[in-house]
Amino acid sequence: MKLSILVLGLCLAVPAHADIYKHIDASGQVTYTDRPVKGAKRLDLGPVATPITRNANNGNPARKNESVSTTPLNFPRVNSDIQRKRDNVRRNVLEDELHVEEQALSDAVTAKKDGEVLRPGEKATSPGYITRTERLDSNIKLHRDNINALRKELSSVK
């Protein structure tokens, strides 16, 4: 019982992480994930600037708009100029990756249009055609998901 409470406490005490990993597979497809994958490279995006605050009014309406930082006083601080530079570097890395993914999506859409053309002797119901178009659809979905993930991450950068 004590062990399960300890394990639960440790799980809850793990701080939120915003690591992003970039993986390029053998066919050149780029995938971004929050889980480490064999061969993936962790993107160095710098620390996430998310102040932790809590409401300190303790039910007192007179202190309604007050908030108190829960960050310890001895917690290392970064001045605003350094943090702004880190945020800019992080934003630039994410924007560069977004542009790469947008181009890859455009290429995937073009490849799908080319791939949808029936080859001589091929029918739309033939297994080769279906497999090929499913693979092309999957590639498009992959790039759209990557773009959405990057845009979501960019929205959190100050």
Describe this structure in words.
- The chain has 158 residues and is mainly alpha-helical.
- 49% of the residues lie in helices and 11% in strands.
- It contains three helices and five strands, in the order H-E-E-E-E-E-H-H.
- The chain has helices at 2-13, 80-115, 127-155; strands spanning 20-24, 30-33, 41-43, 53-55, 67-69.
- Strands 2-1-3 form a three-stranded antiparallel β-sheet. Strands 4-5 form a two-stranded antiparallel ribbon.
- Helix 2 (80-115) runs antiparallel to helix 3.
- The longest helix is centred in the middle third of the chain and has 36 residues, at 80-115.
- 8% of the residues are buried.
For the largest sheet, list the strands in their spatial order.
2-1-3
Looking at the chains present, what oligomeric state does this protein adopt?
A: single chain
Q: What's the total helix number?
A: 3
Secondary structure: helix percent: 40-55%
Unreliable residue runs: 10-15
Helix/strand-derived category reads: mainly alpha
Query: Quick one: biggest sheet?
Result: 3 strands, antiparallel
State the total count of DSSP E strands.
Answer: 5
The Cα radius of gyration reads 23 Å
Helix-strand pattern, N to C? HEEEEEHH
Shape: elongated
Q: First CA to last CA: what distance?
A: 43 Å
Mean pLDDT comes to: 81
Proportion of residues in extended strands: 5-15%
